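Quick note —
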Amino acid sequence: MRLVLDTNVVVAAFRSRTGASNLLLRMADEGRVTPLCSTALFLEYEAVLSRKETRAATGHTLKDVAKVMSAFAAIAEGVDISFRTRPLLADAANEMVVETALNGYADAVVTHNIRDFSAALKLGLTITTPGDVVRRLTK
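Predicted structure written out below.
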C-alpha cells in the first residue's frame, strides 16, 4: 500500500509509541507499506520534528530526529512533483501532501485531519486515518 503521511501523523508517531501512527511507521520499516515523500514534504517533517516545542513533547534530541529522518529516507519512495494542484485546500501546507499523493500514485493520504483534505476527494484521492489503515492491514 502506497501512502502519503500528513505531518501530523509523523509527529503523532513520535509522541506515542503505542498509537496507530507509530505502528504505521513500524509497518513501513517492515516493508508492509510504502511511504511516499517529496523533498518539500520530507523537509517539513524534519522542520516540525526539530522544533523545540515538538522535541519537548516527544523527548527527542536533534540527533534523534536526524537519525529517524535518515531511516525514513531509506524506506520512503521519493516523488518528483511534475504537476501541481494549487490552490485546492484551505491550508497551503497540505497542498504538498496532495501533490505528493497525486504525483506518486498513492493509494491514500493518511491524516488525523480528514476534513482538511475534503476538497482533495474530488481528485479521486482516498483520505483516511492511521487507525483505519492499521485495522485494514491487521485483519
